[in-house]
Specification:
InterPro entries: Enolase-like_C_sf (IPR036849), Enolase-like_N (IPR029017), Enolase_C-like (IPR029065), Mandelate_racemase_C (IPR013342), Mandelate_racemase_N_dom (IPR013341), OSBS/NAAAR (IPR010197). It comes from Granulicella cerasi. The protein has about 375 residues and is an alpha/beta fold. It folds into two domains: about 130 residues, Enolase-like, domain 1 (2-Layer Sandwich); about 220 residues, Enolase-like C-terminal domain (TIM Barrel, Alpha-Beta Barrel). Strand 1 and strand 2 form a beta hairpin. It has a seven-stranded parallel β-sheet with strand order 5-6-7-8-9-10-11. A four-stranded antiparallel β-sheet has the order 3-2-1-15. It binds 2-succinylbenzoate and magnesium ion. Magnesium ion binds next to loops.
Length: about 375
């Protein structure tokens, strides 16, 4: 496949509710979308890089620059037969994984259209529905925290993850556990703690959490192993897993017992599949993380989540939790059992609404072969 044009755009979408984590608050999402054109077909990808380099070192403007100056020109010179060929085309460029993923995932989508099969099938998915959880941001008050958890449990979500940080942890876990003794409950610190907190964190075993996500430094899995030895609750690794080697090193080292796979964080579907396989080899379950995606990234997360080792509910939830109006149709909905049906039609399985994308586009650029 010779890609003829790559359209890059930045869109800005206000979130229906502010999303607060230990590293900051999102009220609006700035996102890069790429559209590739090839042999009369068009396919889309999304870069999940944030507005600031707070979750990872990439951000919207670095992703834009990397795509414009380095990545898109390489892809436009290449001849690729599938998404699997893209990492090799881009490999001279180090890092910039979220930027790379936007392009690579669009090529996977293109290939699924060309083959007339669903993206899920092309990726090797085996599930016809996926299990959904939610990630709840740090709320303004304890009352609002409890009310939000109650609402999401009532909606049917199978796992509730609570963002936490020092000062917003034990009391919150105790309150929510008390109200819901049996649900799958987890927390995500986004690296808000250090080893000085290790004994206190180890004592969270009393809350019977399904997992504790990335409690320590974003680039560490050495010290996570020391913490994991002290506690029964599995550590789930997010930020620190950049590729299949990290996954293998972390699992050999005992740094965690669960991996959150974010396709942007690992640089695209090829690497996401490889991380999935490494975890499976270790008997370690994975789940699909979220980055407050638009419908494009969300649809692609649904496809990825249909692979067999996605054994725990992901952070892939309904469009309406994020957006007043999503940019795909129909919007992504979750059943009362907390499941999303995996589409079987060719491609991502949800239609792009171009007028809506145009209306929120703040800059765009076309690159040609
Ligand atoms: O750590 O999983 C995270 C959102 C932005 C950055 C990092 C994270 C998150 C989430 C939200 O937890 C998941 C979602 O609902 O998309
Ligand atoms: Mg996380």
């Amino acid at each position: 496949m010779k890609i003829e044009e790559i359209h890059l755009r930045e869109v800005q979408m206000p979130l229906v509710n502010p999303f607060r984590t230990s590293f900051g608050v999102h009220t609006m999402r700035r996102m890069l979308l790429v559209e590739i054109e090839c042999e009369g077909m068009t396919a889309w990808g999304e870069s999940v890089a944030g507005e600031h380099p707070y979750f990872s070192d990439e951000f919207v403007d670095t992703a834009w620059t990397a795509i414009e100056l380095e990545l898109a020109p390489r892809l436009l010179k290449a001849d690729v037969s599938s998404g699997r060929d893209v990492p090799d085309v881009l490999k001279q460029v180090r890092g910039h994984r979220m930027a790379k993923a936007a392009l690579e995932n669009a090529v996977w989508e293109l290939d699924s259209l060309r083959q007339g099969i669903s993206l899920a099938k092309l990726l090797g998915g085996t599930r016809d529905k996926i299990a959904c959880g939610v990630s709840i941001g740090i709320q303004p008050s304890r009352e609002e925290q409890l009310a939000t958890v109650e609402k999401e449990v009532a909606a049917g979500y199978q796992r509730i993850k609570m963002k936490c940080q020092p000062g917003w942890d034990e009391e919150i876990f105790a309150m929510v556990r008390d109200r819901f003794p049996d649900i799958w409950l987890s927390c995500d610190a986004n690296s808000a703690y250090t080893l000085e907190d290790a004994d206190r964190i180890a004592a969270w075993d009393r809350f019977n959490l399904l997992m504790i996500e990335q409690p320590l430094w974003y680039d560490d899995f050495y010290f996570h192993a020391q913490l994991q030895k002290k506690m029964k609750t599995p550590i789930c690794l997010d930020e620190c897993i950049r590729n299949r080697r990290d996954a293998r090193a972390a699992l050999e080292n005992g740094s965690g017992r669960i991996i959150n796979i974010k396709v942007g964080r690992v640089g695209g579907f090829t690497e996401a599949l490889a991380v999935h396989d490494v975890a499976e080899e270790f008997g370690v379950p994975v789940w699909c993380g979220g980055m407050l995606e638009t419908g494009i990234g969300r649809a692609q997360n649904v496809a990825l989540s249909s692979l067999p080792n996605f054994k725990l509910p992901g952070d892939v939830s309904a469009s309406a939790r994020y957006w007043k109006q999503d940019i795909i149709e129909p919007e992504v909905t979750v059943s009362a059992q907390g499941e999303i049906v995996v589409p079987t039609t060719p491609g991502r399985g949800w239609e792009i609404v171009r007028e809506r994308i145009d209306a929120i586009t703040v800059r765009s650029l076309t690159l040609r072969r």
